[in-house]
Amino acid sequence: MKTFCGRANPTIGSMEWLEEGEDYDYHQEIARSRYADMLHDKDRNVKYYQGIRAAVSRVKERGEKAIVLDIGTGTGLLSMMAASAGADFCYAIEVFKPMANAAVKIVEKNGFSDKIKVINKHSTEVTVGPDGDMQCRANILVTELFDTELIGEGALPTYEHAHKYLVQEGCEAVPHRARVYVQLVESKRMWSWKKLFPVRVEAEDGEKILVPPSEMENCPGVPSVCDIQLNQVPSSDFTTLSDVVTMFSVDFSKPVQSASTYYRVQLEPVKSGKAQIVLSWWDIDMDPSGMINCTMAPYWALYINPFQWRDHWMQCVYFLQNEEPVLQGEKLLLTACRDEYSVWYNLQKEEHKADVHVESPVCRCRAHLLWNRPRFGELNDQNRTRQYTMALRKVLKTDSVCLCISDGSLLPVLAHYLGAKQVFTLENSGVSCSVMDKFFKANHLEDKIKILEVRPELLKPSHLEDKKISVLVGEPFFTTSLLPWHNLYFWYARTAVSTHLASDVTVLPQSASLHMMVVEFQDLWRIRSPCGICEGFDVQTMDDMIKDSLNFRESKEAEPHPLWEYPCKSLSDPQEVLTFDFTRTVPQHCLSTEGSVNLLRKGKSHGAVLWMEYHLAADISVSTGLMQIPNEKGNCEWNPHCKQAVYFFSSVIESEILSDPTAVTYAINFDTKTGEIAMDFNSALDEQSIGVSVLYV
């Protein structure tokens, strides 16, 4: 059986479906899973173990046999904890067949095959009875079905079904309850991820202010939660307007309702300001008394140490539909609506209390379908806009005929206001055409800028009114790009429209370069680090499984991560490794380079970070990676609007003695036929200066 998988194709600027082998989907699931992160989550594992021990003890004290139902067992870890704690029998449910097979091996390896039965089914398909999957209903329910939003992985309907059909009334549950917390804040930075702010442009005839369409201004946006590492957002980037309050709680030991509903709390702002954002996180009590607690609280609301880093559970940012001016001490009502899988919020003044509509928010303006949240932040970055404005001033003339190639870019408007005679913008999709048309109309530019919904290779002279393009511009930005170099689609598009360009055409950016730096991650390394033994249980089988899946393909590829959320220290200087000349067409031959970088600081080299820099004009560049050279300690500041590419090394290089620096060699190849970059890194191991530990890759 073959599997069709979507992959970004940088040569055509869109997704394409490729036929893969039957194992591809499985390997992708394992390779990109967060199993390693969960197994390294010491706080989570210890608290679960404590809660399971306590639950088994309570059942035993009642003179009952301890029968455990573990839904979503994964490696079988929680079932092994229960068996080790004295449970008489455990039913471990796992719907993902390769994972269920691994759980069987792990359970057997740890000597619990007589106490644990792994059932490869969805929990809603499990039967109970003499001939069923379970001989009887369980009296202890153990689950780990949670995501950052708590309910996004279907925890509520799963619990609802389990209480109806799989567990006894009054059963013990680990975790016993969950609480969702909220805090109202004002944050220009986070608000910029949802709204398009007015854009100021210093034009020849004075300052121009671009405004978003009213439809965009009043749009509720997309319903999906914005989950981030809130601990990486500095306190200077937001103002708390309320205390932290409990929004709602769920008791997992009792029947759970998954039907859509809402919860309301009264808030009194502790400070006046603009209510824009609801920050949210949750905690879980592993026992009825609440003595065993696992919390996702961010640093300013966390009253325990040490802080536990984790990536499988983070914190939530929710955007109110419109910002609401609030006064210190006034009465507000915050409403949380939820369905089976998601939560959304609205805020009202108490005197304006209205009926609650539980329908999920839907984007009406289509801009939130075109631009993701980092893209909104990028478009709202006035410093970035200023860079493009300065570059355009250098190249535009009063007779310039300008063509813009980027998805939903503001560059055509900048070009018009900065004096271009005529401006065309090439949009690849109906959504981008619709959004840009509304934006141009809102600023009375519909007759000034012509939208072309046509692929570059299909562009005809008639589209351009038989004019030759004298200035070709791009940010470049394309919605299908996943890795930094995928935006090199601009180069392919530039090649496709070359017959429409004047002989003395100016291309902006004129070139791009790929940069690389070796780093030590503060925490991100955990997602690729073997666990071996977890709370006394051997999970090496899981390590091997992840390694095999990574070796299937993933270990040879870089992966995108927003590194502003994942602190790291540079161990080498940043280095330019490849250049791409946009003034020329894409060459037929591959672009390759080899070289080495010296490790200049002590630390563990977990991998290399790669990013693109675009050279707009002679002395103006924009970076999608480092925003400035790392300081003496190697601290890095990353572009907050872009994901950087991370290539994890197969072995961690631990450099100690720097008198004779260790060199990391690299070989990088850009295949112009596919638009993809292949890379390989190696270290010349010097036993006096380095040690080596293994990552999965």
UniProtKB/TrEMBL annotation:
Residues 176-348, 510-671 form the Protein arginine N-methyltransferase domain. GO terms for biological process: cell differentiation; methylation; spliceosomal snRNP assembly. PROSITE patterns: SAM_MT_PRMT. It is an enzyme of class 2 (transferase). It comes from the Eukaryota. It catalyses: L-arginyl-[protein] + S-adenosyl-L-methionine = N(omega)-methyl-L-arginyl-[protein] + S-adenosyl-L-homocysteine + H(+). InterPro entries: Arg_MeTrfase (IPR025799), MeTrfase_PRMT7 (IPR014644), PRMT_dom (IPR055135), SAM-dependent_MTases_sf (IPR029063). One of its GO terms (molecular function) is protein-arginine omega-N monomethyltransferase activity. Arginine methyltransferase that can both catalyze the formation of omega-N monomethylarginine (MMA) and symmetrical dimethylarginine (sDMA), with a preference for the formation of MMA. Specifically mediates the symmetrical dimethylation of arginine residues in the small nuclear ribonucleoproteins Sm D1 (SNRPD1) and Sm D3 (SNRPD3); such methylation being required for the assembly and biogenesis of snRNP core particles. Specifically mediates the symmetric dimethylation of histone H4 'Arg-3' to form H4R3me2s. Its EC number is 2.1.1.321. Keywords: Chromatin regulator, Cytoplasm, Differentiation, Methyltransferase, Nucleus, Repeat, S-adenosyl-L-methionine, Transcription, Transcription regulation, Transferase. This is Protein arginine N-methyltransferase. It comes from Malurus cyaneus samueli. It is found in: Cytoplasm, Cytosol; Nucleus. Belongs to the class I-like SAM-binding methyltransferase superfamily. Protein arginine N-methyltransferase family. PRMT7 subfamily. GO terms for cellular component: cytosol; nucleus. Pfam families: PrmA, PRMT_C.
